[in-house]
Specification:
Order of helices and strands of chain A: HHHHHHHHHHHH
Number of helices of chain B: 11
Strand content of chain A: under 5%
Shape of chain A: globular
Strand content of chain B: 25-35%
Shape of chain B: globular
Largest sheet of chain B: 6 strands, mixed
Number of strands of chain B: 13
Distance between the termini of chain B: 14 Å
Structural class of chain B: alpha/beta
Chains: A mainly alpha, B alpha/beta, C mainly alpha
Structural class of chain A: mainly alpha
Oligomer: heterotrimer
């Protein structure tokens, strides 16, 4: 059963299997048809409500430091798309803390697949589909759509998703070290989202530093918006680099934590 | 071909557990200056398993049983000692080993709850990289052997426990593992379903020579499935030999509980030892060898002199057996003493 | 004697919250960062239009309105609508068919039993953030009085709306869609992110007729700066909408119960 594979073929195989997982998750969710539709539409409405709120804001205040409604529309489109990308295809990453606490990690360890990838890809959030629909909707409705801006929209959102994924894995993997950290991990993620819909140029100084080094909203919100509004290669380079670093750190940290878990010397109660 | 499919030598596992005193001050102290306690969960276990054996691996909770299995399957790394399982070192080659072992947990399901079992099988086929043609063949064979065709397309949540367990076992066999680890496979099943599952596992072992490693608290599982029993307690192997020998040695008493119409103080049968007595009921323990005659004598005496309202006859629970076994273990069965070879003859593989 | 029961419910609530202390710290951090972001946003907003006050309210006032509105809004947890929905679906409600008013009152007092400790905890961290970022609020006696009256009424209004929504479970499988609409209404018009005072004038005049500003925005608004006319208006809205909600709740309850009796639940 051993096959040596070219790294590129390996990646393709992984991607296909991830898609297969997502498909299986969606099939399972569709067993309850109304609930499926309600979730997707519900999230769409939810996002639209937030958009409406900002629309009203910009009716009163056409520009804040030069940032207007269209900027917010772009920002919402890319942040929401990144979020939906992570949570449609790799939602398991957000459950790592719970999985570790409940002793379910052993289930994943019994398979011949990379544990982090298996955990991430095997779960999916249905309402995130609603987020994706919203993201495309608001992009096409309120932002200047050209072939270039659309391509940049997709690439930047994808890279930002990488940063989001890395951040999620690292914060969730803290559960390998302390029990009861799930809520805090989720709060940290909420903070990341929390920064994502406000006019990005209001953040300066200390708070800006926080969004670069602690809660990476600079990479998941600020840069993607800037790229779509005024594209620049260096900014794209920075974003892609950040994504690569985030994912690499996540993988390494998870692997290291997993090795510690396997040696059994953890404070966490195991089944 | 390597004769042994599992080789375990002097396996040890130590944990460091954080000590915490009760109360708020204790929590604070534990935060600032943590104290650790060393627990040796597994204290030098050694054994060999030949391909095709059916083994019951039993012991009370906390005995080191699940820790040992986790080390065998690569989930935990040993503190010291060596393991070779299906030709691999589990802690270093976990992924490769995963292709050769299958696991079935009675209490945790591997099947996706809202979908038919066949969807999980498709998924497994992809994860285990089973080529399409081989998968179809294998699935066809297993579906027939385990008789799950009628409910293959039914969502798992709608299956009965017995049906679900069959589907679980099929899931664990798709990739042709050479060893199957089963943990409480018949838990919660009714008598008929239990018999069905046991038969299916036995057949599997006979047809394909899959080595069976069973953990169960059900004496019936052990007796009907395993020709060899290993008992673990306090991190040590307390017994490793034929199940028959285990039974003869330790499942050696029967307890008879009588509920009588009349007052029991007049009960004067000499058979066995009275362990409990109240106004209308009496519990008698019958010793090893003279069981059947003893029961006959006891019952005829009872029926002759009393009116029986209710009667229960049972064997001591596994915990009880093991506790007693630990208390009276004879010297030649202690751990690491290889002077007596109790490994039974391997069952020849039917090719 | 009945009140001691609700006191113990309140006590259990506080202890439960305090038990997850790391959880509390996390929540407090999230709240503080959120207030920090609001402060940054509105400071920039005011600066852009070169204003120190809008409708008489300065940046500090806006931030305190948000502190209050958000703390009030989050105190109604766990969600009453979800609780009622669960009871309808599980049939627990069927036991109370013969005692509808005591059923209502029980949930009413449970709600307030929860609100108390929740409010203290929420206000604690949010107010601390407010003080740090914009300084102490300037609350006059009049604004305090008006604010407290409106606060009490807003909880009553929120309770009855949530209760009525929960009762919709008699007719629909899943009331979460209606709950969401309710929460979104609170988000947009309830002064949780953009206080009504900052709305475009035309829209604000229309929105003031909705139940949402009457809920948690009104006490927040009045606490920050007293305005007699506004106080009367919001009080009127609260009374009106609460009456509507109570009527809806009673109507839905009676109809729902009759449904259950006819169809056997």
């Amino acid at each position: 059963m051993e096959r040596r594979m070219l790294p590129w073929k390996h990646a393709v195989k992984r991607i296909r299997l991830s898609l297969y997982f997502t498909r299986t998750n969606i099939l399972a969710a569709m067993e309850f048809r109304t609930s499926f539709i309600v979730q997707v539409i519900g999230m769409l409405v939810n996002d639209a409500a937030v958009a409406m709120l900002w629309y009203i804001f910009f009716q009163s205040f056409p520009g804040v430091n030069g940032w207007g409604w269209q900027d917010t529309a772009i920002l919402m489109a890319t942040s929401t798309l990144s979020f939906s990308f992570v949570f449609i295809f790799f939602k398991g990453a957000g459950d790592i803390a719970v999985i570790v606490r409940q002793g379910e990690l052993d289930y994943y360890l019994a398979f011949p697949a990379d544990v982090l990838w298996h955990v991430s890809a095997s779960r999916s959030r249905i309402d995130a589909i609603g987020d994706a629909l919203f993201a495309f909707g608001i992009f096409f409705l309120f932002t200047p759509v050209t072939f270039v801006t659309f391509a940049v929209f997709l690439i930047a959102s994808l890279a930002a998703a990488g940063v989001m994924y890395g951040f999620t894995v690292v914060t969730q993997s803290l559960a390998f070290y302390t029990p009861n950290i799930e809520d805090a991990s989720r709060d940290l993620f909420e903070l990341l989202l929390g920064f994502s819909f406000y006019p990005q140029n209001i953040f300066t100084g200390g708070i800006r530093a926080v969004t670069i080094f602690v809660i990476p909203a600079f990479f998941t919100a600020t840069i993607p918006h800037r790229l779509i509004a005024h594209f620049a290669w260096p900014a794209l380079g920075v974003l892609v680099l950040a994504a690569i670093i985030a994912v690499t750190v996540a993988i390494l940290f998870f692997r290291y934590s997993l090795r510690r878990y396997e040696s059994g010397n953890l404070m966490v109660t195991r089944g | 071909m390597n004769a042994r499919i599992i080789e375990v030598r002097d396996l040890r596992k130590r944990f460091r557990a954080k000590q915490k005193q009760a109360g708020l001050r204790g929590s604070f102290a534990a935060l600032v200056r943590p104290e650790f306690r060393e627990i040796e969960a597994v204290s030098g276990i050694s054994f060999d398993v030949n391909p095709g054996e059916r083994i019951a691996f039993i012991g009370p909770n906390g005995a080191g049983k699940s820790t040992t299995i986790k080390m065998l399957t690569g989930i935990l790394t040993p503190t010291s000692g060596s393991i070779r399982c299906a030709g691999y070192d589990p802690s270093r080659e976990r992924k490769k080993l995963a292709h050769s072992i299958g696991t079935v947990f009675g209490q945790k399901s591997q099947l996706w709850y809202h979908l038919p079992a066949v969807d999980t099988y498709e998924l497994f086929a992809k994860i285990y990289e089973i080529p399409r043609v081989q998968y179809r063949e294998r699935l066809g064979y297993l579906v027939e052997a385990f008789e799950i065709a009628p409910f293959l397309a039914t969502p798992v949540r709608k299956l009965s426990l017995g049906e679900r367990m069959r589907c679980e076992i099929v899931a664990s066999l798709l990739h042709r593992p050479s060893i199957l680890f089963l943990d409480e496979p018949t838990i919660g099943l009714d008598v008929v379903a239990k018999l069905g599952i046991r038969e299916v596992i036995r057949e599997l072992n006979e047809r394909e020579g899959v080595t069976i490693f069973l953990t169960s608290h059900d004496a019936g599982d052990i007796e009907s499935l395993a020709e060899r029993t290993m008992v673990v307690n306090h991190g040590r192997l307390m017994f490793d030999g034929a199940t028959e020998a285990f039974r003869a040695q330790f499942i050696s008493t029967k307890t008879v509980e009588l509920h009588l119409e009349e007052d029991t103080h007049a009960f004067a049968c000499r058979v066995g030892t009275v362990t409990q007595k109240s106004k209308h009921s009496i519990t008698i323990e019958l010793a090893a060898d003279a069981k059947s005659e003893a029961i006959e004598e006891l019952l005829s005496y009872t029926v002759e002199h009393f009116t029986v309202r209710d009667i229960n006859i049972f064997e001591p629970p596994m915990e009880e057996i093991i506790r007693r076994m630990y208390a009276q273990v004879p010297k030649w069965h202690t751990t690491n003493d290889r002077s007596v070879d109790t490994t039974p003859e391997p069952i020849p593989l039917i090719s | 004697m009945r009140y001691s029961k609700y006191l113990s419910v309140a006590k259990i609530n506080v202890t439960e919250r305090l038990h997850h202390s790391s959880n509390l710290a996390g929540r407090a951090l999230v709240v503080m960062v959120r207030i920090w972001i609001f402060t940054t946003l509105y400071t920039a907003t005011y600066r852009t239009i070169h204003a120190t006050t809008i409708h008489g309210i300065d940046v500090a006032g806006i931030v305190w309105m948000l502190v209050f509105a958000q703390s009030f809004r989050q105190s109604g947890w766990p969600n009453t609508a979800a609780i009622i929905e669960t009871e309808v679906k599980s049939g627990t409600l069927a036991y109370s068919i013969n005692r509808p008013y005591s059923y209502l009152l029980f949930h009413f007092w449970s709600y307030f039993g929860r609100v108390g400790p929740n409010l203290l905890i929420n206000i604690g961290s949010a107010a601390l953030a407010g003080i740090i970022f914009v300084g102490w609020p300037s609350i006059s006696l009049a604004s305090a009085g008006a604010g407290l009256v409106l606060l009490a009424m807003s909880f009553v209004l929120d309770f009855f709306c949530a209760f009525a929504i929960g009762l919709l479970a008699f007719w629909t499988e899943d009331t979460s869609a209606f709950q969401w609409l309710y929460f979104k209404g609170q988000l947009i018009f309830g002064g949780l992110v953009l206080p009504l005072a900052l709305f475009p004038d035309a829209l604000r005049r229309v929105a003031e007729w909705l139940p949402f500003p009457a809920m948690f925005y009104s006490p927040a608004r009045l606490l920050v700066s007293y305005d007699g006319a506004l106080f009367k208006w919001f009080l009127l809205m609260q009374v009106a909408w609460t009456s509507v909600a109570i009527l809806m709740a009673v109507f839905l309850f009676r109809r729902g119960v009759r449904n259950v009796e006819m169809n056997g639940g």
